[in-house]
Design goal:
125 residues; 3 helices; flat
């Protein structure tokens, strides 16, 4: 069998999720025995100072015998996160200058709290 025929047989069904600098690839693939399994690949783009870029990839292989347990745990973990932190994404934490913005907010909060501070003499109480 030619290599191209193997590649066509190997990739059965695919979906892509683009999420900013990350891309997730969900692929159904076939084993040599013609059974199916899933691969989940995270590909993250890194840009160098000179404008060139490279990708780092991480792959998970998920076999049929693990689908139910994997799905149960994934649902439990996502429900936990959403129940404890809600669905709002705090995107500013992903910005390169997050610390600088955070320091500015802290300084502004300090100024605001100093202005709203009421000086009370305990002898007056």
């Amino acid at each position: 069998m030619r290599e191209n025929d193997m590649l066509e047989k190997d990739e059965i069904f695919s979906k892509v999720l683009r999420a900013g600098r990350r891309t997730y690839f969900f692929d159904v693939r076939a084993t040599k025995a013609d059974d199916y399994y899933i691969t989940i690949t995270e590909s993250k783009k890194f840009t160098e100072e000179d404008g060139s870029f490279h990708f780092k990839k991480h792959k998970i292989y998920l076999y049929k015998e693990d689908f139910a347990a994997f799905t149960d745990i994934l649902e439990e973990m996502t429900a936990y996160v959403l129940n404890h932190k809600g669905e709002e994404v705090i995107s500013e934490r992903h910005q390169k200058d997050f610390k600088r913005e955070y320091q500015q907010e802290t300084a502004e909060e300090t100024k605001t709290s100093e202005k709203s501070f009421t000086d009370i003499d305990f002898d007056d109480i």
